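Bug #77: duplicate submission created two jobs. Keeping one. Sequence:
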Amino acid sequence: MKRCTSGRVFSTVRSRLVLGIETSCDETGAAVLDETGVILGESLHSQKQTHLDAGGIIPTVAQRLHRENISKVVQEALDRSGIEPSELTAVATTVKPGLALSLGIGLDFNFPFLVLLVSGGHSLLALAKGIDEFLLLGQTLDAAAGDTLDKIARRLSLRNHPECSSLSGGQELYDCNFSFAGLRNQVTLAISKKEREGVEKGQLLSCVKDIAAASQHTMASHIAKRTHRAILYCKSKGLLPQHNPTLLRGVASNEYIRRTLKIVTDATGLHLLCPSSKFCTDNGVMIAWNGIERLKQGKGIMSHCEEVNYEPKAPLGLDITSEVKDAAIKIPPLKLRINS
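Kept job's structure:
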């Protein structure tokens, strides 16, 4: 999760201010927030086009771009907020998880709530019981959702399609774990078969839209079913509040997945909360807000003179995935077809 290092505390009574710095993968972000969640200033440098041109994220390139842009991004966030560094109460920075070389550079809810994280490198379902207390219900077994969509898009040569040139890609068990390696392999086989029929590698297939749509629907259905089972498990164990239980979906900005999840939450009586698309990529706001939450509760706060280590791969909370599987919860059928 995220940790923050403490800075200078105000001697007068006023809202505490936190600078958040995000460098976990391929975006360099910074933001200044007050403790009510108001964004006073933010800045973001995207590496998206560089990595698109390279065919994927290259850690050494991401590291270099973070190093080149972090000072400018932080200064822009401070300038836009009108806050001097000496006025900050604390600085929050990403320390786990993420790309090691990138990390080296740099909720306002009534608990508990269910959280679904779907990103380029991570997919997981967890019950958030507190600011630093989580029950891990399911996680990625092989490939993450975002990475799978990226590789399928690359294999389909979607960069050569005028509508997609600037876009990144995006066995039934009784558990909530995610597995997308099989989907990737099936799509690769289907594409290879079409290429053997006379289409040169790198050229757009006549069925490119069908394969892309089928891949997205299969992935969305897989995510929805795991989420449905997680909801039923949490309800059976009394882990969700009776009043206004909530599912928070983080990171993924895919509208198709969002609409599929809405079908599940409507059927199970949960309230679906999704951040705006602006905050569905790496950004400093989410780090600063995590710092605000930790500052309020006095958790994970360190002195500026203490050493802080980053963790490229970090387990989340208490792993109860085996207990979820042993519960053998069957999910009722839901019509997950989304009309475009």
